[in-house]
Write a structure and sequence with these properties.
elongated, 5 helices, mainly alpha
Length: 113
């Protein structure tokens, strides 16, 4: 049986709140940068190998231009790639639905190369 545990904290002081807001903004911007970079069709192969892409970035010495820690930009990368996977899956579903609504593909179209 699972139980939800709610963590409580004292109210954040102004400086800590500002730092938290800056980190959240940097994370969102880094994720957006990854979405823009890897959203192109030429990076489709990376979606199935997220860990490999991350390892390549680490090996290349990638550092976040927004000042995120390594674990934070890695989470942003994973989040962005997950988002892109869902977008491509939704696009495939949309294309399939449109094809079936219009009678599908002819035999000649199915074998088009």
């Amino acid at each position: 049986m699972r139980q939800t545990v709610k963590q409580k904290s004292l109210p954040l002081n102004r400086d800590k709140w500002v730092k938290l807001a800056q980190t959240a903004e940097a994370y969102a911007r880094q994720k957006n940068a990854f979405l823009v970079k890897y959203g192109h069709v030429k990076y489709l192969h990376c979606l199935g190998a997220k860990r490999k892409l991350r390892d390549e970035l680490v090996a290349a010495g990638f550092t976040s231009p927004l000042g995120l820690q390594a674990r934070q930009w890695k989470l942003a990368l994973d989040d962005a790639l997950f988002t892109l996977e869902r977008q491509w899956e939704a696009a495939v579903v949309e294309v399939k639905e449109r094809l079936y609504r219009h009678g599908g593909l002819s035999d000649e179209e199915k074998h088009y190369e």
